[in-house]
Specification:
The chain is built from 34 helices and 29 strands. The chain binds zinc ion. The site of zinc ion has 6 residues, from helix 10 and helix 11. Its cofactor is Zn(2+).
Length: 1030
């Protein structure tokens, strides 16, 4: 499921990210349980001997947080003795939501009294075991054991208790590998009046290894009947055990099921339609007449298919699916495949049956919908493309259909593999948490991510195109070839994000995506410059639902995409595409790990050294800082990790193979000027002609690193820009601005030097560098604002007016065709108006009044709506009229902008109202709460209120948005990232540590604490400079 907070529209609507970096001080990957066991799923033959492993996981997988070293030693010694002496089921129960990435810090490693007791106990054990051995000649603790009586004792794992009190026959979060589902036959009967459903799931499976148990997932389903059939035998009723904390059910057998046997498990069940945003959930909206209409839809990624039907809910368990759904007349149903037939049932209800999926697919990609939607359609090659919406928004679906058709054709051609299904539906769901979800053949969207009026601005359309391009790319990267487990989620999301920009830059160059992609790379670096960021390909434990949810973050999406861009620009033309086609072809229909990607590249002739290079980027977190120092023709490059909190020494020896690109003053802006030098060691020297005046590294900022040129190097570059701005490309200028702010945050350059560089911007007119400069400045402004540094704020305004005021005032407020110009104008004007520049606020207010006086017929240009609405929202009466407009508009992009404007009010009463209304749902949909919270957090009036609000309502918030999920990450980040004092640091720390299993261990919490510390440090370091120089 994808969130799209980082596309152009939101970036333009005012830079939110500078010092709000993410951060982690813990190394997230320290826990040892690495690849060898649970990190990779089930289907590898060498993994299937699960008995010994399970006994190990009794220690590791379960309540491992509770284990001290000595306890662990104790257990392993005892295990060596073949003892099954500890039933840890009490621990299992208490760890129902285990969140065990990180063991609590140990204060003392010296042996404790307990250790002594344990030691004595072990001695006694050893002695008694030795005696037992002595008196039982012939019995050894070899695999064969000593006959029946004894053989079951060694390695007997400890199992948790099922709901009915019996032992549950499995004790790992990951499923055993002994059984493989082949086909699911799903029948669902939802009742949209009682908001319940019943279902029958028939699972055909084959036995891969002899086993006495079948274990699969099920959550919040009441199993009413279960039957089991082996081969041609008669089917028999079986008992289903359930272990709720891990959402697993199991059937045990007295006799082994044998390798190669084919079995059928049939489960009848009943459940409530979910009230949250995942599983099979109910949703509603008000139609034109104001009547409430209900519908039911699904959202399964990452782990909620189990809430709709019992299944082997891990991405590597691919199978085919046949779906049947019962509905009332007046509704339609949709699923991944085209409808095969409709039958009228004796009850008068209708049953729609869909074709069996033509492809093997992962459970998280299954989807179905029952609603009263209407659609428009078009044929593209052999695929019928449709866009569905609620009937009243049908006329907003055309842009999505056009875009999807063009992109489907593009991907079919580019990847050399046709989209494999006969239909592709894109559906706008009124209540939808993510931005969109790439279910195979049935992509679901938030209305704001799919629907756009024909007269909407290109900037609004750019957002839709982004989401559609991303989700369509997933039909290959994710659906056809799927990561084996969530630790390699970047193989889905990094690629989909990369293709999203690449396909649009090719097919819709007028949408100006290269600027957006540049911003995305900057954003990924902000997150990745913190100590406990994670590698793109995570080698450590990603097991609990929270850990899985947390994989959906900026590193996975945006750093993943950035690394692919770096790879592509390093390879000779065409080779990247060749390698990608090879990868898709090699693994279509199956699952992959990151190494498979590198192997595919090697197969098309990419040098092994490139794979080695990429491993240095995907397997370690962070990225390098390259420092340039020059003596005549000798240029020395030195690399070190770019770490904002440099107190952590563990990463400082990290090295990357950096494809350093550079241009010089003789040839600096054309692509042909670019030269490459691979920096593999800590330092290296390259030679240039003595006559070269300056070098600019990281041409077009396609590499994922930051460059420090030294005092002299910066000075010559700044001079060069002041002499001729066009000596560097706009992206290179943006890259310099980004890098120097980053270096100042790192403490390597003074803020004085930052301001020196920015002086050239009085001549700047391009979108990318200006957007970057304003984004950075506004983050600084916001931090100072939260500290109420009034005098500095006043001077900073003067500074901003001095550098950008003229440009702001010269902006046109009429229609504008160029997306790039729209982006620039909206960023400039939003800053101007939010800082109260009279010229701006007068124009905005006039446009707003025209709009309301004309009964909203006199349109405001789409890219100016945000600044106009937000300015209007600062006056009480206009705020009220905006509220009315919010309730009545059917234009989703407009609605979202109005909501942001409403939330930007500085009136505390309105802020409190809008927060509680957002949490309540109804007038403001709960799905919009993260947006409301982040908007309120940016303003001075609300930033403390909103933090209190989040603390007070934490339990209700995590009911709506799962712990670890993107909305929760966003809520934590936006409410805490502008704090910069010790008091706030302690308060944030105190609050989250009080949460325990309700979220205290989230990566975003570490991130938030590190950000506050860095803000504090930044203030200490820079306030004096700012006072002098601003
Ligand atoms: Zn995605």
């Amino acid at each position: 499921a994808d969130t799209f907070h980082f596309t152009a529209a939101s970036r333009a609507s005012l830079p939110r990210n500078m010092i709000e970096n993410t951060m982690f001080e813990e190394e997230p990957d320290v826990v040892d349980l690495a690849k060898d066991s649970t990190a990779f799923p089930a289907l590898e033959p060498d993994e299937v001997v699960y008995e010994p492993r399970s006994s190990r996981l009794l220690v590791r997988g379960l309540g491992e947080n509770d284990l001290d070293d000595e306890e662990e030693d104790y257990e392993s010694s005892a295990r060596l003795l073949g003892m099954s002496f500890m039933n840890r089921s009490s621990t299992h129960n208490s760890s129902s939501s285990p969140y065990n990435r990180q063991a609590p810090p140990r204060l003392c490693s010296c042996p404790s009294a307990r250790m002594l007791v344990v030691g004595v106990f072990i001695l006694v054990l050893v002695a008694s075991m030795a005696m037992a051995l002595y008196f039982l000649p012939g019995c050894t603790f070899t695999k064969a054991g000593c006959g029946k009586a004894n053989s079951s004792i060694p390695m007997e794992p400890s199992y948790p208790n099922s709901t009915n009190g019996e032992l549950f026959p499995w004790n790992e979060l990951r499923l055993p590998a002994s059984v493989r589902p082949v086909n699911y036959d799903l029948s669902l009967t939802p009742n949209l009046t009682s908001m319940t459903f019943t279902g029958r799931t028939v699972i055909n499976m084959t036995i891969l290894h002899d086993t006495k148990r079948i274990v699969l997932h099920s959550s919040e389903l009441i199993i009413t009947k279960a039957t089991f059939q082996v081969g041609e035998d008669k089917s028999v009723e079986v008992k289903v055990l359930e272990y709720k904390p891990w959402q697993q059910i199991a059937v045990s057998f007295l006799e082994d099921l044998k390798v190669g046997q084919v079995c059928v498990l049939t489960l009848d069940y009943a459940a409530n339609l979910s009230h949250t945003y995942d599983g099979f959930y109910n949703s509603s909206y008000n139609d034109k007449t104001g009547a409430k209409r209900v519908l039911a839809a699904t959202q399964f990624e990452p782990q909620a298919a189990r809430k709709a039907f019992p299944c082997f809910d891990e991405p590597a368990f691919k199978a085919t699916f046949l779906v049947r759904i019962t509905r009332e007349p007046g509704y339609i149903t949709l699923s991944n495949m085209p409808q095969a037939k409709t039958t009228t049932l004796p009850s008068g209800l209708l049953e729609d049956e869909f074709e069996q999926t033509a492809v093997n697919m992962s459970t998280y990609l299954v989807a179905f919908i029952v609603a009263n939607f209407t659609s428009i359609t078009r044929n593209v090659s052999n695929t019928l493309v449709s866009v569905y919406s609620v009937p009243e928004k049908k006329e907003h679906t055309h842009y999505a259909l056009d875009t999807a058709s063009t992109l489907l054709h593009f991907y079919n051609t580019f990847f050399h593999i046709d989209y494999p299904l006969r239909k592709l539906d894109l559906v706008a769901i009124p209540d939808f948490l993510a931005g969109a979800m790439e279910n195979w053949g049935l992509i679901t969207f938030r209305e704001t991510s799919l629907l756009v009026g024909n007269q909407s601005s290109p900037l609004d359309k750019q957002l839709i195109a982004n989401v559609v391009a991303h989700e369509l790319a997933h039909q290959w990267f994710g659906n056809l070839v799927t990561m084996r487990w969530w630790n390699d989620l970047w193989l889905n999301e990094g690629f989909a994000t990369y293709w999203q920009y690449t396909s649009l830059m090719t097919e819709f160059p007028q949408l100006d995506l290269d600027n957006v992609f540049l911003g995305v790379r900057f954003k990924a670096m902000a997150k990745d410059s913190l100590n406990s960021s994670h590698p793109v390909s995570v080698s450590s434990q990603v097991t609990t639902p929270e850990q899985v949810s947390e994989m959906f973050d900026s590193v996975t999406y945006e750093k993943g995409a950035s690394l692919l861009l770096m790879l592509k620009t390093t390879l000779p033309d065409g080779q990247f595409r060749k390698g990608i086609i090879k990868y898709l072809d090699n693994y279509r229909g199956s699952n992959t790990v990151t190494e498979d990607l590198w192997n595919s590249l090697t197969q098309v002739g990419v040098q092994e050294s490139v794979s080695d290079m990429m491993r240095t980027w995907t397997l370690q977190n962070g990225f390098p800082l390259v420092t340039v120092s020059r003596k005549g023709g000798h240029v020395t490059l030195t690399q070190e990790p770019f770490l904002l909190s440099a107190d952590n020494a563990t990463h400082t020896s990290n090295l990357w193979h950096i494809p350093v690109t550079y241009v010089n003053d003789n040839c600096s802006s054309a692509p042909s000027c670019r030269q490459i030098f691979t920096l593999r060691n800590k330092t290296a020297t390259l030679n240039v002609s003595d006559s070269v005046k300056w070098l600019k590294l990281n041409y077009m900022n396609t590499g994922f690193y930051i460059v420090h040129y030294g005092d002299e190097g910066w000075a010559t570059l700044i001079d060069a820009l002041k002499t001729d701005i066009n000596t560097l490309t706009p992206h290179d200028r943006a890259s310099l601005i980004h890098n120097i702010f980053a270096l100042s945050r790192l403490g390597r350059v003074s803020f004085r030097q930052v301001l020196n560089l920015l002086d050239y911007t009085t001549n700047e007119t391009e979108t990318a560098p200006l957007t970057e400069a304003l984004s950075q400045l506004s983050s600084v402004y916001r931090l100072l604002d939260k500290r109420q540094e009034q005098r500095l704020l006043a001077r900073m305004k003067v500074y901003i007016w001095g550098h950008f005021g003229q440009l702001m005032d010269s902006q046109d407020w009429g229609e504008e065709e160029s997306v790039s110009r729209q982006e620039l104008r909206s960023v400039l004007l939003e800053m101007a108006c939010s800082l109260g520049r009279q010229n701006c606020t007068d124009q905005a207010t006039a446009l707003y009044d025209q709009w309301t006086n004309s009964n909203q017929t006199k349109q405001i240009p789409g890219d100016l709506q945000q600044v106009v609405f937000s300015t209007a929202a600062q006056a009480d009466l206009r705020w009220l009229s905006l509220m009315e407009a919010y309730s009545s508009t059917t234009y989703d992009s407009e609605k979202r902008k109005i909501l942001q404007a409403l939330a930007s009010t500085q009136d505390p009463r309105s802020i409190v109202w809008i927060l509680s209304t957002g949490l309540e749902g109804g007038i403001i949909q709960t799905q919009e709460l993260p947006l409301v919270i982040s908007t309120v957090s940016d303003g001075f009036a609300g930033h403390l209120l909103v933090w209190d609000f989040v603390k007070e309502n934490w339990d209700r918030i995590i009911e709506k948005f799962p712990v670890g999920s993107y909305p929760i990450q966003s809520i934590i980040k936006s409410t805490t990232s502008q704090f910069s004092t010790q008091t706030h640091l302690e308060e944030v720390q105190g609050f989250f540590s009080s949460l325990k299993e309700r979220g205290s261990q989230m990566r975003s919490v570490q991130e938030s604490l590190e950000t506050i510390r860095l803000n504090q440090l930044w203030m200490d370091r820079n306030l004096p400079t700012l006072r002098i120089w601003l």
